[in-house]
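It would be a great kindness if you could assist me with a short task in structural biology. The matter concerns a single protein, recorded as an amino acid sequence and a row of backbone structure tokens. The record follows directly beneath this note:
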Amino acid sequence: MRKVTLICGDNRINTTCEGVSQHVYNRLVVHGISKAGRAWYDALPEGHPPVMVYTATNAERLDCLSSDPLP
């Protein structure tokens, strides 16, 4: 499991996931996020600011959450 921090405006959560990959330039895909992380993301209001993903080695905008395995 990998630790990640998701930040959207004033909202933030420290959570875990299976890993992250980069499919689009300057955007990350988070694979296998924890239930708490998924619930936090699903609770964001419509039209929310971009979500930033911070890992130990990277910080980029979130492209999407995926249940697919790492590529």
Q: What stands out?
A: Helices lie at 35-42. Residues 2-66 form one domain. The two ends are 16 Å apart (CA to CA). Residues 35-42 form the longest helix (8 residues).
